[in-house]
Amino acid sequence: MTAAAIRQSLVARRGHALPLSLTALVLFAVCYACGPFITLWRINRAVSNGDLDTLRGAIDWNAVRQGLKDDTAEGLLGMPRRTLAVSNTLPPFGASFVSGIAAAAVDRDVTPQGLVHAARLLDARSGGAAPFPAIVGARFASPARFDVSLRVPGQDAGEEPLHLRLTFQTGGWRLMRVWIPQDLMDRATDRG
To answer: Quick one: CA dihedral 93, 94, 96, 100, positive or negative?
Structure first.
């Protein structure tokens, strides 16, 4: 092969490299942007099918539990309103005791098994046809953080939605934080 033939071959390859690179970049961007929604779908399917292994992989349970404990300790979430009213009349020691009980309940109930169990209770109450929560809002808060707001089945449009935070870690999206509005906590304890 002559030098001219080699040069011509390299020029031809360069002409194909740019479209191939752009195609790869667009494909990566689409996969990245769809990733949080795919993770939410995987979690929904895992809950429906009782797939505990998928739930363990898609959700950082320690981070979710710690976030809920923090919210309870800060008084943002927690106990049903009737229990909260009683705890507000307690001295500081009593209030910390109640927070400790709430933290123990979070550790006990916020698990893959607890989520599947709660979903099955919801299915039974709704005749087995509990739809996927409606996405009210979703946005990338940063390149590695995605926030989504969901309206759960039975929740009215005026009520505060459930807020979730997913983060991009080691090549995939994981649910890291959940903010549960007080009305959902009240509803869960009233029915439970």
So the answer is: positive
